Structures are given as C-alpha cells and as structure tokens.
Amino acid sequence: MIIIILWIIFSFLIGAIASNKKVGFWGGTFLSLLLSPLIGLIIALVSSEKSTKSEATKYLIKADKEMRQGSFQQAIQSANTAVNLNNNFPLAYYRLATLHSIRSDKESAFLCLEKAVSLGYSNFDKLNKDPNLEWLRRRPEWEQFRTAGYKKTSSNSGYINELNELSNLRDKGIITEDEFIAKKQRILNETK
Fold it and tell me: Transmembrane segments in this chain: where (predicted)?
C-alpha cells in the first residue's frame, strides 16, 4: 500500500518537474503513473523546454490591452518582455515602435520599426496608415527612412550596430539579460 502511495506522490512531483517542458505537468504525471516515476523523470529531463513564443504572444496581447487603456509605460514594459522572451518577434518590435511614437521617442521608435521590418514585418500599408505612428511619420527623417527600406541611414546607425552587437552577446550568453537591458538603456539614452 505504501508503495502505491509513494508511486502516486512521486508521479505528481515528476509532473511538477515536467510542467515547464513540452511534455507538461499532466503528461509527466501520466507517464510516471503509467510507466514508473523513474522513467517519467528521465522523460521530463530530456524533454525540451516549452516554447517561449506563446509566452511572448501573451505579453504582446497584454501590451495591446495596456496601450488601449492608455497605460503606455506598462505597455512598453510588456512589449519589452515579449521581445526578451522572443527577440525574433516582429510584431512585438512593431508594437514597441508605435508606443515609442506615441511617447514622442523618435530614436527608439525608428530603431524598433527598423528591427520589426528586418525580422519580416511586411504590412507596409498598415505601417504607413497606423494612427499610432502618425507622430513618427511627421518627423523630417521619415521619408528618407521609408525610401531606404525602413532603415535608418543617418550617422545614428552606429548605435544600431552597437545594439545589434549587444543583442548578439546576450544571445550567446556572454552577458546576462540584466546587463543587456542596462547597456541597451544607456545606449538609447546617449542617442537622445
């Protein structure tokens, strides 16, 4: 009787271990109950991590909601979290561009819009009509930015290269996420 109780308890513990893996809580628990807690543990440990894309999408939806409510700073934080979870997410960069445009932060808006396009954002009709980008489109450098394929061509492109290099260092694990955020903010502050 004690073996059955321990088997069940360990199966649920394995499920907890598997909760952030693709196999999931219930998959880990079921496999442990069916096969054995030891085999369930092995499967949970070798199972790959859950995709961060779904988490990033949740934060982007949260950013959209906060933006509609007028909580722009919170929306920027949520969109930044989406980017941190999936730095190849063009819609998150697009949302950041619109938020920075609303807040009249020209350099950040251009930078995020350039990144969104470089990652594959291609709804140029929306980009050229989105009321949230109206302020940015009225900047003198907009036309040059647009005709250059939505790329910044001024002397400020040096900081873009610096930010890209910083992102590469983060992706390679050379610097931590906190170091990346602090250095990114310093670079953006220097360009204003």
Answer: 28-46
Where does residue 12 rank: exposed (0-12), middle (13-18), buried (19+ CB within 10 A)?
Answer: middle
Whole-number Å distance between alpha carbons of 95 and 78: 10
Q: Report the b/e string of 119-149 with b at 16+ CB within 10 A.
A: eebeeeeebeebebbebbbeeeebeebeeee
Tokens representing 170? 């983060």
Contact 58, 81 (CB under 8 A): no
Contact 101, 82 (CB under 8 A): no
Which residue stretches of 47-141 are H helix? 52-68, 72-85, 90-102, 106-118, 124-129, 134-137
How many Cβ atoms sit within 10 Å of the Cβ of residue 104? 11
Q: 52-154: which CATH number, 1.25.40.880, 1.10.1130.10, 3.70.10.10, 1.25.40.10?
A: 1.25.40.10
Query: What predicted TM-score, i.e. pTM, was given to this entire model?
Result: 0.58
Residue pLDDT, tens place only, 6-29: 889 988 998 888 887 878 889 889
